[in-house]
Amino acid sequence: MCEPNLSVLSLQFLDNHCNRCALVSSSGQMLGAGAGDEIDQIGCVIRMNNAPTRGFEKDVGSHTNVRVVSHTTVPLLVKKERYYFKQSADTTYVFWGPYRNMREDGGGIIFNVLLKLALRYPTVKMYVVTRDKIQYCDSVFQNETGKNRYGLGLLSQLRFQGPTIAIRNIARPGSPEPNLHCHCCF
């Protein structure tokens, strides 16, 4: 099995193991749930994209260990970069997207933005999902839904791809099975 996530600056692989995790999406369905304390008590909290916590702590908690970010959300993080990369410096960021945007040869527009951010915030842990792992997640999508991800709308792709990357690559890296102790909060 290929290594899942490569550091933006150091080209090192992410080694993160969670015994229990909470996967919290950016869905508004969590509003009013009052699950914040329960989420914060779990050892590994994984959030999706730019899901806010400030002002919503009662419902979604405040702690974030890992933030899985789609290439389409990177510009939104850049708009609030001090919040995401300075104040939340203890969060590990895992970015994913199509190869054309994530290329490391200077041609990947999103990778180039991430490289600038990594240089500006050298203590922040930033990783990109490798091309091999994206292809693996595409095959999982195809097997689970019976559909080719590229024929669907972007929203359908994002709803499946981000959580798949989080559960299959972060909760138990290299394992074909998701972490059975991962609480998904959508």
UniProtKB/TrEMBL annotation:
Major subcellular location class: Golgi
- What keywords appear on the UniProt entry? Disulfide bond, Glycoprotein, Glycosyltransferase, Golgi apparatus, Lipid metabolism, Membrane, Sialic acid, Signal-anchor, Transferase, Transmembrane, Transmembrane helix
Compartmental location? Golgi apparatus membrane
The membrane-topology field of this record reads:
Single-pass type II membrane protein
Top-level taxon of the source organism? Eukaryota
Which Pfam families would you find in this protein's record?
Glyco_transf_29
Q: Which Gene3D superfamilies does UniProt cross-reference here? A: Glycosyl transferase family 29
Which ranges does the record mark as transmembrane? none
UniProt cross-references to InterPro entries, sorted A to Z: Glyco_trans_29, GT29-like_sf
Reactions listed under catalytic activity: a ganglioside GM1b (d18:1(4E)) + CMP-N-acetyl-beta-neuraminate = a ganglioside GD1alpha (d18:1(4E)) + CMP + H(+)
Family, as annotated = Belongs to the glycosyltransferase 29 family.
User: Which named protein is this?
Assistant: Uncharacterized protein
Native source species: Xenoophorus captivus
